[in-house]
Structure formats: structure tokens, C-alpha cells
Amino acid sequence: MNGFDLVRVSDPETSKETAVFVDEHTRRPSERAVLAVLYLHTYPEKGTLTDKQIIHFMHRDGWKFSESRIRTARNALERRGLCQTDGHITNEGGRKERLWKISDAGIDAIEKGIRDDEN
């Protein structure tokens, strides 16, 4: 499986590029998709996302992963240092939600994959 197996034909070129990165860092398609969403929506200097926002972007773009699978994938990426928390917000119900962004290691993994694919 390469990164393009995870991208729909109708996706823009930037989505295709972000889907190509090193398999050793992202073991499951859901992890690759979550990392791609974080790359596209938090780097560079685009801010942070809550889990609910990550889920929204994934479902909006046609991914069929469950909310639980998406959270599990994001958790796996955090454990491997590919994404990180960047504070929290208090939602409308008064509960705290963590804010997530791609880490430097996550950026490196994606960009290395893009460079490898170009060669």
C-alpha cells in the first residue's frame, strides 16, 4: 500500500501529497488519514484542531472511519510523537477539549514521504 491508496481520485494535489509518507510511522490507514488532516489544517501556522474538528474534516472528506477509530488513531500518533497537544478549550457544555496539531516529527514524516515519492 502506498499513500495514494488512501486518496480519492477527486482529491486536490495537496491532499495526494500529504497522503504519501513513511509507512513505519503510520501503521494503519486511519492513522495516515488523521496525520494528513492535521498536516493540512494545522501546519504551518494554521492553528489547532479538537478531536471533534478532526472527525468533522475526515467525514466531510468522505472517510468512513468511526469516531472511535479516529480518536484511537490520533492517540497512536501522539504516542509515537507525530502529533501533540497545544492547550485546550472549554466547549459549549463547559467541558475541556484538547487542541491538537502535527508535531515536527509528523511534519518530517510527511515531507520525507513526499520527497521519496518524487525520486
- Please identify the structural class as seen in this structure: alpha+beta
Question: What's the mean pLDDT score?
Answer: 83
Order of helices and strands: HHHHEEH
Computed over alpha carbons, the radius of gyration is 14 Å
How many angstroms separate the termini?
18 Å
- What's the number of extended β-strand segments? 2
Short structural summary:
With 119 residues, the chain is α+β, with helices and mostly antiparallel strands. The chain has five helices and two strands; from the N terminus they run ααααββα.
Q: What would the keywords be for this entry?
A:
119 residues, alpha+beta, disordered N terminus, Helix-turn-helix domain-containing protein, WH-like_DNA-bd_sf
Your description of this structure?
- The protein has 119 residues and is of the alpha+beta class.
- The protein contains 5 helices and 2 strands.
- Strands 1-2 form a two-stranded antiparallel sheet.
- A hairpin with a 5-residue loop joins strand 1 and strand 2.
- Helix 2 packs across helix 4 (67-79) and helix 3 packs across helix 4.
- The longest helix is centred in the C-terminal third of the chain and has 15 residues, at 104-118.
- The two termini are 18 Å apart.
Write the layout of secondary structure elements.
Elements: H1 13-18, H2 29-42, H3 51-60, H4 67-79, E1 83-90, E2 96-102, H5 104-118
Antiparallel strand pairs: 1-2
Helix pairs in contact: 2-4, 3-4
